[in-house]
Amino acid sequence: MKINYKTTLYSCYIGYITQAIINNLAPLLFIIFQNQFHITFEMLGSLILINFVTQLAVDIITVKIVNHFGYRPLMILAHTSAALGLISLGFLPNILPNPYIGMIFSIVLYAIGGGLIEVLVSPIVDSIPGDNKSGAMSLLHSFYCWGQVGVVLITTLLLFFIGRDKWTIITVLWSLIPITNIFLLMRVPLMSPVPEEGQTPIRKLFTRKAFLLIMIIMICAGASELTMSQWSSLFAEKGLNVSKVFGDLLGPCLFAIFMGIGRMSHGLWGSKIKLEKLLVASALLCVSCYLITVFSPYPILSLIACGLTGLSVSLMWPGAFSLASNRFPSGGASMFGILAVCGDLGCASGPWISGIISNKVAKLNIGNPLADQLALKTGLLMGTIFPAILLICLLLAMNNSKKKILN
Asked: What are the sequence ranges of the domains in the chain?
Protein backbone atom coordinates (compact mmCIF):
# COMPACT_ATOMS: atom_id res chain seq x y z
CA MET A 1 0.00 0.00 0.00
CA LYS A 2 1.29 3.45 -0.96
CA ILE A 3 1.48 5.61 2.16
CA ASN A 4 0.43 9.24 1.59
CA TYR A 5 -2.14 11.77 2.80
CA LYS A 6 -4.92 9.68 1.25
CA THR A 7 -3.86 6.89 3.58
CA THR A 8 -4.01 9.37 6.45
CA LEU A 9 -7.55 10.18 5.41
CA TYR A 10 -8.45 6.48 5.33
CA SER A 11 -7.08 6.00 8.85
CA CYS A 12 -9.26 8.92 9.99
CA TYR A 13 -12.28 7.25 8.36
CA ILE A 14 -11.51 4.05 10.29
CA GLY A 15 -11.14 6.20 13.41
CA TYR A 16 -14.69 7.43 13.03
CA ILE A 17 -15.90 3.89 12.34
CA THR A 18 -14.28 2.98 15.67
CA GLN A 19 -16.11 5.90 17.26
CA ALA A 20 -19.38 4.55 15.82
CA ILE A 21 -18.68 1.13 17.38
CA ILE A 22 -17.98 2.74 20.75
CA ASN A 23 -21.17 4.80 20.77
CA ASN A 24 -23.65 2.38 19.20
CA LEU A 25 -22.79 -1.20 20.14
CA ALA A 26 -23.93 -1.17 23.78
CA PRO A 27 -27.42 0.29 23.08
CA LEU A 28 -28.07 -2.64 20.72
CA LEU A 29 -27.44 -4.91 23.70
CA PHE A 30 -29.67 -2.99 26.13
CA ILE A 31 -32.53 -5.46 25.88
CA ILE A 32 -30.07 -8.30 26.61
CA PHE A 33 -28.62 -6.40 29.59
CA GLN A 34 -32.16 -5.90 30.92
CA ASN A 35 -33.08 -9.56 30.60
CA GLN A 36 -29.77 -11.14 31.65
CA PHE A 37 -28.59 -8.70 34.31
CA HIS A 38 -31.88 -6.99 35.34
CA ILE A 39 -30.74 -3.46 34.41
CA THR A 40 -33.33 -0.65 34.75
CA PHE A 41 -34.04 2.16 32.27
CA GLU A 42 -32.23 4.63 34.52
CA MET A 43 -29.18 2.36 34.79
CA LEU A 44 -29.11 2.01 31.00
CA GLY A 45 -29.33 5.78 30.67
CA SER A 46 -26.47 6.08 33.16
CA LEU A 47 -24.31 3.82 30.96
CA ILE A 48 -24.82 6.28 28.11
CA LEU A 49 -24.03 9.15 30.47
CA ILE A 50 -20.85 7.46 31.71
CA ASN A 51 -19.70 6.88 28.14
CA PHE A 52 -20.04 10.49 27.10
CA VAL A 53 -19.00 12.09 30.38
CA THR A 54 -15.79 10.07 30.13
CA GLN A 55 -15.35 11.21 26.55
CA LEU A 56 -16.04 14.77 27.65
CA ALA A 57 -13.38 14.59 30.38
CA VAL A 58 -10.87 13.12 27.91
CA ASP A 59 -11.76 15.88 25.43
CA ILE A 60 -10.79 18.51 28.01
CA ILE A 61 -7.51 16.77 28.85
CA THR A 62 -6.65 16.23 25.18
CA VAL A 63 -7.07 19.93 24.42
CA LYS A 64 -4.31 20.61 26.95
CA ILE A 65 -1.86 17.88 25.87
CA VAL A 66 -2.25 17.51 22.10
CA ASN A 67 0.31 20.22 21.29
CA HIS A 68 2.84 18.53 23.57
CA PHE A 69 2.47 14.92 22.44
CA GLY A 70 1.31 15.39 18.85
CA TYR A 71 -1.32 13.44 16.92
CA ARG A 72 0.29 10.03 16.36
CA PRO A 73 0.89 8.71 19.92
CA LEU A 74 -2.51 9.93 21.07
CA MET A 75 -4.30 8.34 18.10
CA ILE A 76 -2.54 5.02 18.78
CA LEU A 77 -3.49 5.28 22.46
CA ALA A 78 -7.08 6.00 21.46
CA HIS A 79 -7.44 2.86 19.37
CA THR A 80 -5.65 0.69 21.92
CA SER A 81 -8.02 1.85 24.66
CA ALA A 82 -11.05 1.33 22.40
CA ALA A 83 -10.01 -2.23 21.56
CA LEU A 84 -9.36 -3.18 25.19
CA GLY A 85 -12.69 -1.72 26.28
CA LEU A 86 -14.64 -3.66 23.67
CA ILE A 87 -12.88 -6.89 24.60
CA SER A 88 -13.50 -6.37 28.33
CA LEU A 89 -17.21 -5.65 27.68
CA GLY A 90 -17.48 -9.20 26.43
CA PHE A 91 -15.96 -10.70 29.58
CA LEU A 92 -16.21 -8.55 32.71
CA PRO A 93 -20.03 -8.47 33.14
CA ASN A 94 -20.04 -12.26 33.18
CA ILE A 95 -17.14 -12.81 35.58
CA LEU A 96 -17.50 -10.00 38.14
CA PRO A 97 -19.92 -10.39 41.08
CA ASN A 98 -21.64 -7.17 39.98
CA PRO A 99 -22.16 -7.22 36.18
CA TYR A 100 -23.02 -3.52 36.14
CA ILE A 101 -19.56 -2.64 37.49
CA GLY A 102 -18.03 -4.68 34.68
CA MET A 103 -20.07 -2.73 32.14
CA ILE A 104 -19.03 0.58 33.66
CA PHE A 105 -15.32 -0.32 33.66
CA SER A 106 -15.45 -1.47 30.03
CA ILE A 107 -17.38 1.58 28.89
CA VAL A 108 -14.97 3.96 30.64
CA LEU A 109 -12.05 2.17 28.99
CA TYR A 110 -13.36 2.40 25.44
CA ALA A 111 -14.80 5.88 26.06
CA ILE A 112 -11.24 7.10 26.70
CA GLY A 113 -10.46 6.05 23.15
CA GLY A 114 -13.64 7.69 21.90
CA GLY A 115 -12.80 11.00 23.54
CA LEU A 116 -9.31 11.05 22.02
CA ILE A 117 -10.64 10.18 18.56
CA GLU A 118 -13.30 12.88 18.74
CA VAL A 119 -10.76 15.62 19.44
CA LEU A 120 -7.99 14.44 17.13
CA VAL A 121 -9.61 13.23 13.90
CA SER A 122 -11.27 16.50 12.81
CA PRO A 123 -8.16 18.72 13.10
CA ILE A 124 -6.08 16.02 11.38
CA VAL A 125 -8.42 16.07 8.38
CA ASP A 126 -8.63 19.86 8.52
CA SER A 127 -4.81 20.00 8.33
CA ILE A 128 -4.61 17.84 5.19
CA PRO A 129 -3.97 20.05 2.11
CA GLY A 130 -7.16 20.76 0.13
CA ASP A 131 -9.69 23.46 -0.76
CA ASN A 132 -13.14 22.09 0.17
CA LYS A 133 -12.68 21.91 3.96
CA SER A 134 -16.44 21.90 4.70
CA GLY A 135 -17.03 19.08 2.24
CA ALA A 136 -14.07 17.11 3.57
CA MET A 137 -15.41 17.48 7.12
CA SER A 138 -18.88 16.25 6.16
CA LEU A 139 -17.41 13.34 4.20
CA LEU A 140 -15.28 12.41 7.23
CA HIS A 141 -18.28 12.45 9.54
CA SER A 142 -20.26 10.35 7.06
CA PHE A 143 -17.97 7.44 7.94
CA TYR A 144 -19.28 7.59 11.49
CA CYS A 145 -22.69 6.94 9.95
CA TRP A 146 -21.51 4.08 7.75
CA GLY A 147 -19.81 2.65 10.81
CA GLN A 148 -23.09 2.93 12.69
CA VAL A 149 -24.92 1.19 9.84
CA GLY A 150 -22.40 -1.63 9.95
CA VAL A 151 -22.59 -1.93 13.73
CA VAL A 152 -26.40 -2.08 13.73
CA LEU A 153 -26.76 -4.35 10.71
CA ILE A 154 -23.98 -6.82 11.51
CA THR A 155 -24.69 -6.95 15.25
CA THR A 156 -28.43 -7.43 14.71
CA LEU A 157 -27.90 -10.22 12.19
CA LEU A 158 -25.27 -11.94 14.34
CA LEU A 159 -27.60 -11.83 17.37
CA PHE A 160 -30.32 -13.38 15.23
CA PHE A 161 -28.19 -16.16 13.70
CA ILE A 162 -25.85 -17.11 16.56
CA GLY A 163 -28.26 -16.25 19.40
CA ARG A 164 -28.43 -13.52 22.01
CA ASP A 165 -26.56 -15.65 24.52
CA LYS A 166 -23.44 -15.36 22.27
CA TRP A 167 -23.38 -11.54 22.44
CA THR A 168 -19.93 -11.57 24.09
CA ILE A 169 -18.35 -12.92 20.90
CA ILE A 170 -19.69 -9.92 18.98
CA THR A 171 -18.00 -7.33 21.21
CA VAL A 172 -14.65 -9.07 20.75
CA LEU A 173 -15.08 -9.23 16.97
CA TRP A 174 -15.68 -5.47 16.81
CA SER A 175 -12.38 -4.84 18.60
CA LEU A 176 -10.55 -5.98 15.45
CA ILE A 177 -11.38 -2.66 13.73
CA PRO A 178 -9.38 -0.40 16.10
CA ILE A 179 -6.63 -3.03 16.36
CA THR A 180 -6.19 -2.94 12.56
CA ASN A 181 -6.07 0.85 12.52
CA ILE A 182 -3.28 0.92 15.12
CA PHE A 183 -0.86 -0.57 12.57
CA LEU A 184 -1.99 1.92 9.90
CA LEU A 185 -1.56 4.90 12.22
CA MET A 186 2.02 3.89 12.92
CA ARG A 187 2.93 4.64 9.29
CA VAL A 188 0.70 7.38 7.84
CA PRO A 189 2.03 10.96 7.46
CA LEU A 190 0.53 13.42 9.96
CA MET A 191 0.82 17.19 10.07
CA SER A 192 1.91 18.74 13.36
CA PRO A 193 -0.77 20.53 15.42
CA VAL A 194 -0.99 24.30 14.94
CA PRO A 195 1.56 25.76 17.38
CA GLU A 196 0.01 27.45 20.40
CA GLU A 197 1.46 30.82 19.41
CA GLY A 198 -0.30 30.52 16.04
CA GLN A 199 -3.71 29.62 17.50
CA THR A 200 -6.50 31.93 18.49
CA PRO A 201 -6.23 31.93 22.31
CA ILE A 202 -8.96 29.96 24.07
CA ARG A 203 -9.77 32.93 26.30
CA LYS A 204 -10.32 35.07 23.23
CA LEU A 205 -12.65 32.46 21.73
CA PHE A 206 -14.80 32.57 24.86
CA THR A 207 -15.22 36.33 24.48
CA ARG A 208 -16.64 36.00 20.96
CA LYS A 209 -20.42 35.76 20.69
CA ALA A 210 -20.08 33.75 17.50
CA PHE A 211 -18.11 31.03 19.24
CA LEU A 212 -20.43 30.90 22.26
CA LEU A 213 -23.36 30.48 19.90
CA ILE A 214 -21.62 27.69 18.02
CA MET A 215 -20.95 25.99 21.36
CA ILE A 216 -24.70 25.96 22.11
CA ILE A 217 -25.40 24.64 18.61
CA MET A 218 -22.84 21.89 19.21
CA ILE A 219 -24.45 20.84 22.51
CA CYS A 220 -27.86 20.64 20.86
CA ALA A 221 -26.42 18.79 17.86
CA GLY A 222 -25.01 16.05 20.09
CA ALA A 223 -28.20 15.74 22.11
CA SER A 224 -30.46 15.73 19.02
CA GLU A 225 -28.46 12.95 17.39
CA LEU A 226 -27.76 10.67 20.34
CA THR A 227 -31.14 10.82 22.11
CA MET A 228 -32.76 9.16 19.11
CA SER A 229 -29.91 6.85 18.08
CA GLN A 230 -29.23 5.52 21.60
CA TRP A 231 -32.85 4.76 22.49
CA SER A 232 -34.30 3.81 19.10
CA SER A 233 -33.46 0.09 19.34
CA LEU A 234 -35.14 -0.35 22.73
CA PHE A 235 -37.98 1.99 21.70
CA ALA A 236 -38.72 -0.08 18.60
CA GLU A 237 -38.96 -3.35 20.54
CA LYS A 238 -40.69 -2.17 23.72
CA GLY A 239 -42.29 1.09 22.65
CA LEU A 240 -43.65 -0.07 19.29
CA ASN A 241 -43.87 -3.83 19.98
CA VAL A 242 -41.98 -4.90 16.85
CA SER A 243 -39.34 -7.62 16.63
CA LYS A 244 -35.73 -6.70 17.41
CA VAL A 245 -34.48 -7.53 13.92
CA PHE A 246 -37.24 -5.56 12.17
CA GLY A 247 -37.04 -2.71 14.68
CA ASP A 248 -33.26 -2.36 14.49
CA LEU A 249 -33.20 -2.43 10.69
CA LEU A 250 -35.95 0.19 10.32
CA GLY A 251 -34.94 2.17 13.40
CA PRO A 252 -31.25 2.74 14.23
CA CYS A 253 -29.99 1.20 10.99
CA LEU A 254 -32.19 3.42 8.79
CA PHE A 255 -31.24 6.35 11.06
CA ALA A 256 -27.55 5.76 10.32
CA ILE A 257 -28.11 5.25 6.59
CA PHE A 258 -29.96 8.55 6.24
CA MET A 259 -27.35 10.33 8.37
CA GLY A 260 -24.60 8.96 6.15
CA ILE A 261 -26.44 9.96 2.97
CA GLY A 262 -26.92 13.49 4.32
CA ARG A 263 -23.25 13.93 5.24
CA MET A 264 -21.89 12.35 2.06
CA SER A 265 -24.23 14.43 -0.11
CA HIS A 266 -23.07 17.61 1.59
CA GLY A 267 -19.47 16.51 1.25
CA LEU A 268 -19.91 16.09 -2.53
CA TRP A 269 -22.35 18.86 -3.45
CA GLY A 270 -23.10 20.92 -0.34
CA SER A 271 -20.85 23.86 -1.24
CA LYS A 272 -23.60 25.12 -3.58
CA ILE A 273 -26.01 25.85 -0.69
CA LYS A 274 -25.35 28.15 2.27
CA LEU A 275 -24.60 26.03 5.32
CA GLU A 276 -26.73 28.10 7.73
CA LYS A 277 -29.84 27.56 5.59
CA LEU A 278 -29.20 23.83 5.47
CA LEU A 279 -28.87 23.74 9.26
CA VAL A 280 -32.17 25.58 9.74
CA ALA A 281 -33.92 23.10 7.44
CA SER A 282 -32.25 20.26 9.34
CA ALA A 283 -33.49 21.54 12.71
CA LEU A 284 -37.07 21.91 11.43
CA LEU A 285 -37.01 18.38 10.02
CA CYS A 286 -35.55 17.03 13.27
CA VAL A 287 -38.32 18.50 15.41
CA SER A 288 -40.92 17.07 13.03
CA CYS A 289 -39.33 13.61 13.03
CA TYR A 290 -39.21 13.43 16.83
CA LEU A 291 -42.88 14.38 17.08
CA ILE A 292 -43.96 11.87 14.42
CA THR A 293 -41.91 9.10 16.05
CA VAL A 294 -43.63 9.70 19.38
CA PHE A 295 -47.19 10.49 18.34
CA SER A 296 -47.80 8.45 15.18
CA PRO A 297 -50.41 5.71 15.76
CA TYR A 298 -48.71 3.58 13.11
CA PRO A 299 -45.48 1.77 14.14
CA ILE A 300 -44.14 1.71 10.58
CA LEU A 301 -44.51 5.51 10.33
CA SER A 302 -42.77 5.95 13.69
CA LEU A 303 -39.87 3.79 12.49
CA ILE A 304 -39.59 5.75 9.22
CA ALA A 305 -39.61 9.03 11.16
CA CYS A 306 -36.95 7.61 13.46
CA GLY A 307 -34.84 6.83 10.40
CA LEU A 308 -35.38 10.26 8.85
CA THR A 309 -34.14 11.81 12.10
CA GLY A 310 -30.73 10.60 10.93
CA LEU A 311 -31.01 12.78 7.82
CA SER A 312 -32.14 15.75 9.92
CA VAL A 313 -29.15 15.57 12.30
CA SER A 314 -26.59 14.67 9.62
CA LEU A 315 -25.20 18.19 9.17
CA MET A 316 -25.54 19.47 12.73
CA TRP A 317 -22.26 18.14 14.17
CA PRO A 318 -19.95 18.62 11.13
CA GLY A 319 -21.81 21.83 10.30
CA ALA A 320 -20.94 23.32 13.68
CA PHE A 321 -17.30 22.32 13.14
CA SER A 322 -17.33 23.97 9.71
CA LEU A 323 -18.94 27.16 11.03
CA ALA A 324 -16.22 27.42 13.66
CA SER A 325 -13.41 26.58 11.21
CA ASN A 326 -14.63 29.22 8.74
CA ARG A 327 -15.09 31.88 11.41
CA PHE A 328 -11.89 31.08 13.37
CA PRO A 329 -9.40 29.54 10.89
CA SER A 330 -6.59 29.74 13.47
CA GLY A 331 -8.55 28.00 16.20
CA GLY A 332 -6.46 24.83 15.90
CA ALA A 333 -6.89 21.58 17.83
CA SER A 334 -7.89 23.46 20.99
CA MET A 335 -10.94 24.94 19.30
CA PHE A 336 -11.99 21.55 17.90
CA GLY A 337 -11.43 20.07 21.34
CA ILE A 338 -13.72 22.62 23.01
CA LEU A 339 -16.42 21.94 20.43
CA ALA A 340 -15.98 18.20 20.97
CA VAL A 341 -16.50 18.82 24.70
CA CYS A 342 -19.74 20.64 23.91
CA GLY A 343 -20.86 17.90 21.54
CA ASP A 344 -20.15 15.18 24.07
CA LEU A 345 -21.96 17.21 26.74
CA GLY A 346 -25.03 17.07 24.51
CA CYS A 347 -24.44 13.39 23.73
CA ALA A 348 -24.29 12.62 27.45
CA SER A 349 -27.13 14.79 28.70
CA GLY A 350 -29.73 14.12 25.99
CA PRO A 351 -30.02 10.30 26.32
CA TRP A 352 -29.48 10.49 30.10
CA ILE A 353 -32.35 12.93 30.59
CA SER A 354 -34.49 10.77 28.34
CA GLY A 355 -33.64 7.70 30.46
CA ILE A 356 -34.51 9.50 33.72
CA ILE A 357 -37.85 10.69 32.34
CA SER A 358 -38.64 7.22 30.99
CA ASN A 359 -37.82 5.61 34.31
CA LYS A 360 -40.05 8.02 36.28
CA VAL A 361 -42.97 7.51 33.90
CA ALA A 362 -42.51 3.72 34.12
CA LYS A 363 -42.66 3.89 37.94
CA LEU A 364 -45.82 6.00 37.80
CA ASN A 365 -47.48 3.41 35.56
CA ILE A 366 -46.56 0.19 37.37
CA GLY A 367 -49.19 -2.41 36.53
CA ASN A 368 -50.15 -0.70 33.29
CA PRO A 369 -49.46 -3.05 30.35
CA LEU A 370 -48.47 0.02 28.31
CA ALA A 371 -46.04 1.33 30.93
CA ASP A 372 -42.88 0.75 28.89
CA GLN A 373 -44.45 2.24 25.79
CA LEU A 374 -45.58 5.37 27.63
CA ALA A 375 -42.22 5.68 29.37
CA LEU A 376 -40.11 5.47 26.23
CA LYS A 377 -42.37 7.79 24.22
CA THR A 378 -42.26 10.42 26.96
CA GLY A 379 -38.50 10.13 27.18
CA LEU A 380 -38.10 10.60 23.44
CA LEU A 381 -40.52 13.52 23.48
CA MET A 382 -38.10 15.36 25.77
CA GLY A 383 -35.52 15.08 23.01
CA THR A 384 -37.51 17.52 20.87
CA ILE A 385 -36.27 20.43 22.96
CA PHE A 386 -32.70 20.15 21.62
CA PRO A 387 -33.32 20.67 17.87
CA ALA A 388 -35.82 23.38 18.86
CA ILE A 389 -33.11 25.28 20.78
CA LEU A 390 -30.67 24.77 17.91
CA LEU A 391 -33.24 26.20 15.50
CA ILE A 392 -33.81 29.26 17.70
CA CYS A 393 -30.07 29.92 17.94
CA LEU A 394 -29.63 29.73 14.17
CA LEU A 395 -32.61 31.99 13.46
CA LEU A 396 -31.45 34.59 15.96
CA ALA A 397 -28.00 34.57 14.40
CA MET A 398 -29.26 34.83 10.84
CA ASN A 399 -31.73 37.61 11.65
CA ASN A 400 -29.07 39.66 13.41
CA SER A 401 -27.47 40.71 10.12
CA LYS A 402 -25.77 43.78 11.57
CA LYS A 403 -23.69 41.73 14.00
CA LYS A 404 -23.13 39.02 11.37
CA ILE A 405 -22.61 36.41 14.06
CA LEU A 406 -22.12 33.47 11.73
CA ASN A 407 -20.86 35.29 8.61
From this structure: 5-399
> pLDDT tens digits, residue range 105-138?
999 999 999 999 988 888 888 777 765 666 677 7
Tell me if residue 96 falls in helix, strand or coil.
coil
Closest CA to 107 of 69, 52, 170, 60: 52
Rounded to whole angstroms, the Cα distance separating 134 from 323 reads 9
Q: Are 318 and 340 in contact (CB under 8 A)?
A: no
Q: Domain 5-399: which topology?
A: Growth Hormone; Chain: A; (1.20.1250)
Selection from 192, 208, 195, 193 nearest residue 327 by Cα: 208
According to DSSP, residue 273 is labeled: S
Q: Taking Cα atoms as reference points, which of 299, 310, 164, 286 lies closest to residue 239? A: 299
Residues 6+ apart with CB under 8 A from 68: none
DSSP 3: -
Buried b (16+ CB within 10 A) or exposed e, 161-186: eeeeeebbebbeebbebbbebbebbe
Round to whole Å and give the CA distance between 165 and 50: 25
Residue 232 has pLDDT above 90, yes or no: no
Q: Is the pLDDT of residue 206 over 90?
A: no
According to the model, what pLDDT value does residue 405 have? Answer: 44
Annotate 5-66 with DSSP letters as a single string: HHHHHHHHHHHHHHHHHHHHHHHHTHHHHHHHH---HHHHHHHHHHHHHHHHHHHHHHHHHH
Q: Return d(Cα 30, Cα 39) in angstroms, integer.
A: 8
Instruction: Say what the pLDDT of residue 401 is.
Output: 40
**3-state DSSP call for residue 314?**
coil
**365 Cβ neighbours under 8 A, 6+ residues apart:** 371, 374, 375
pLDDT band for 311, please (50, 70, 90 cuts): very high
Q: Around Cβ 47, how many Cβ atoms within 10 Å?
A: 22
Select from 344, 353, 355 the least CA-distant residue to 51: 344
Model pLDDT, residue 20: 92
Amino acid 406: pLDDT: 47
